[in-house]
């Protein structure tokens, strides 16, 4: 497997020049939201592949490539690792640029949504809309889940666990977990961080539940707890999509 991945290193699937504007058709400023999402996923896939190659060499982005007396190490392919690291750095920059335009598009979408709602609402509902506005702006990234795909699936739920009490079911797909969504979950590590930081507090979890051909979006209230009688703070197992 390592050999094939090494071969692929020299044929990246994503434009990864010094800037993302190297080729106009990959300029994130000119891409639609759908294309930006595809570009994001493509960059993340390549970053994952490149990171796996580094791992197969037993190094990471910070490992020293020289011996204690400053000679290149002879137990690794120093030249190839430097090439991979340079590509990872460029791809991280590309990813940052794509995310910037994704977030701008999401923010614009919700601003337009609020404006249309404000124009068509009665005075009473306009007041309610203005009260909700700070929340909509604060959660503009959370709202990204409405435009993008779920990022995790519930693989199992323990009986009487916090997840069970919240109403989570096996097979549910997670669109939002508090402030974490498809744009920022970092292979679910941010979900784990959020849970640890919010023991005893209510987190809103937006799930997509499929019943036949119908998909229902649900907002569930989940309170991470340590004293429910089982393992972990949630009592459920999530897998990334």
Topology of this protein?
Blueprint: H1 2-9, H2 33-56, H3 78-120, H4 123-138, H5 144-147, E1 152-157, H6 162-166, E2 173-177, E3 180-181, H7 189-197, E4 203-211, E5 214-222, E6 236-240
Antiparallel strand pairs: 1-2, 1-6, 2-3, 2-4, 4-5
How many strands, which pairing sense, and closed or not: the largest β-sheet? 6 strands, antiparallel
Tally of extended strands?
6
Name the helicity range.
40-55%
Oligomer kind: single chain
* Intertermini distance: 22 Å
Described by the principal axes of the CA atoms, the overall outline is globular
Average residue pLDDT? 77
Radius of gyration: 22 Å
Alpha-beta classification? alpha+beta
Count of discrete alpha- or pi-helical segments spanning 4 or more residues: 7
Strand content: 5-15%
Q: What are the segments in which pLDDT stays under 50 over at least 5 consecutive residues?
A: 1-25, 122-147
Order of helices and strands: HHHHHEHEEHEEE
């Amino acid at each position: 497997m390592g050999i094939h991945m090494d071969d692929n290193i020299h044929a990246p699937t994503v434009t990864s020049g010094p800037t993302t504007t190297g080729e106009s058709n990959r300029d994130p400023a000119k891409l639609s939201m759908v294309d930006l999402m595809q570009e994001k996923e493509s960059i993340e896939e390549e970053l994952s592949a490149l990171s796996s190659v580094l791992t197969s060499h037993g190094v990471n982005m910070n490992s020293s490539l020289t011996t204690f007396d400053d000679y290149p190490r002879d137990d690794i392919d120093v030249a190839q690792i430097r090439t991979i690291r340079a590509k990872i750095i460029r791809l991280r920059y590309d990813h940052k640029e794509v995310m910037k335009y994704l977030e701008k598009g999401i923010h614009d979408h919700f601003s337009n949504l609020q404006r249309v709602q404000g124009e068509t609402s009665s005075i009473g509902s306009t007041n309610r809309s203005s009260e909700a506005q700070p929340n909509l702006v604060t959660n503009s990234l959370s709202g990204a889940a409405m435009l993008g795909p779920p990022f995790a699936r519930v693989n199992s739920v323990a009986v009487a666990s916090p997840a069970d009490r919240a109403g989570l079911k096996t097979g549910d797909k997670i669109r939002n977990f508090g402030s974490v969504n498809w744009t920022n979950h970092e292979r679910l590590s941010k979900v784990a961080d959020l849970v640890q930081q919010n023991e005893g507090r209510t987190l809103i979890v937006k799930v997509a539940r499929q019943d036949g051909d119908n998909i229902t979006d649900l907002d569930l209230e989940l309170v991470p707890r340590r004293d429910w009688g089982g393992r972990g703070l949630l009592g459920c197992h999530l897998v990334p999509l």
